[in-house]
Specification:
The complex is a heterodimer of chains A (about 210) and B (about 160). Chain A has about 210 residues and is of the alpha+beta class. Chain A contains two helices and twelve strands, in the order αββββββββββββα. The N and C termini of chain B lie close together (about 10 Å).
Amino acid sequence: MLSVLALTSVVLLGIASQITAIVVYTSWERHALVGSDVRLSCSFFSWQWTSPDVTFSWQYRPDGAKEGISIFHYGGGAAYVDNKGPFRDRLEFVGNPSRRDGSILIKNLDFSDNGTFTCDAKNPPDIVGRPSSVRLLVFEKVPVQAGVVTGAIIGVVLGLLILIVAIYYLMRFLVARRVFSLSMSKHGKKGKGKEGSQQKQAGPLK
Amino acid sequence: MLLLLLGIVVLHVAALVLLFVSTIVSAWVGNPNSSSDLWTNCTTLNGESRCDPADTGVWIQAVQALMILSIIFSFLSLFLFFCQLFTLQKGGRFFLTGVFQIFASLFVMSGAIIYTVMNSEWVHESESYGFSYILAWVAFPLAFISGLIYVILRKRE
């Protein structure tokens, strides 16, 4: 009993500490063609109001390298882009920090830009949090995304199944209705004959 | 009659379980150092193993889709069997159940065939077929026979 209590209190404390941490969001993976531009988005969630001292920093680690280099920093209201590294003259800040958007635009991609981009955002006083990474893959020709064909095939087959079932029930309903209306019209003709003769008699009276 | 029913359900469930295991477990092809299946390629180098998501080719995705569809159809067939068990008239045939199960077996067959034919694209030369692949091939006749039994079976009292 005591151990259950201890366990629940630990779990709740863990959740409570997560409530005050900052959570950074980026895409998981971006695919792009050689020579094109790609926009890497970065946003964050924080329980505090967006501070004027909010900072965004982007780091780039090429595929196969152990360390990353810093390529972008936004702090104190000003954006500082890479002017010496692999992205000089190709990097542009397109985010809106007051709206919690720290996205950057990389122009004219090359195969050497393959790698992992890490975005770290801080919103004082909420500074405890993990940075988030997005993997950039540069292709000559964009391949089929994982799962697109799978989902398409499954969706088409199940859709056909549902369509066939729906058509079957619709046909049954229509046939039943037709049979019903035919039988009704048979009865109706007999009934209308009687009514018509009654009306003719009532008419001259009026 | 009850024994027959139980036997048929056991056969159906066995086919379903084989389908599940074949789809999920990562052992379609492999060698002592690596294994790959429909979803990931795992390699062990110097005691450290890492897994990458599978190639995003069109054919492997088709195999994924077909295996998942076969599981779905087999499930639907089991569900329909119990439905029809209680609603079918005496002397009626479990036609719908059988049709769904046969479809499931056809999907597994096409998936296994596509994998066999096209796997030169994404499988290393040194790798040999693993047990998940064999299970897929075993599940096909099992599901097919199960479907046929449903189509032939007549509901008795």
